[in-house]
Amino acid sequence: MEDCVFCKIIKGEIPSKKVYEDDEILAFYDINPIAKVHVLVIPKIHIESLLELKDEHKYLLFNIFEKINEVAEMVGVDKTGFRVISNVGKDAGQAVKHLHFHILGGETLPTR
Ligand code: 5GP
Ligand code: ZN
Fold first, then answer.
1. CATH number belonging to domain 5-92
2. Residue ranges of the domains in the chain?
3. What distance in angstroms lies between residue 106's CA and the mean position of ligand 1's atoms?
4. pTM
5. Measured from the CA of 93, which atom of ligand 1 is nearest?
6. Is 46 in the active site?
7. Which ligand is nearest to the CA of 32?
8. Any residues with CB less than 8 A from the CB of 18 and at least 6 apart, and which?
9. Digits of tens for pLDDT over the chain (112 positions)?
């Protein structure tokens, strides 16, 4: 996807502060953090949102969630707790149309 900011990050065309990378997953710090720790975990293939998930993504999705736990440990929030969010569409305020999971933590998060 040519004008997808996260595809550009994956290709290295836009710099990012990486936490973890393998063949299919990238984790990097959010440029505009809303919590003391704010990391994004994304698949390297362009999937627009959770709404676009297909059977063929089952294995990938499990791997992403496994990696979310590992990344939480890497950035030091696994013991204190963290929140995982994936915004889908307009009302959720999804700004980047490339599936991503926010990991938020490092402090007590607002309940609403
Ligand atoms: P959304 O609202 O789509 O769920 O979240 C998109 C997130 O991507 C936002 O939290 C925003 O700060 C982050 N973001 C947008 N552009 C960039 C960028 O170029 N680099 C990084 N590291 N994060 C970005
Ligand atoms: Zn993309």
1. 3.30.428.10
2. 5-92
3. 18
4. 0.98
5. 2
6. no
7. 1
8. 26, 27, 28
9. 779 999 999 999 999 999 999 999 999 999 999 999 999 999 999 999 999 999 999 999 999 999 999 999 999 999 999 999 999 999 999 999 999 999 999 999 999 7
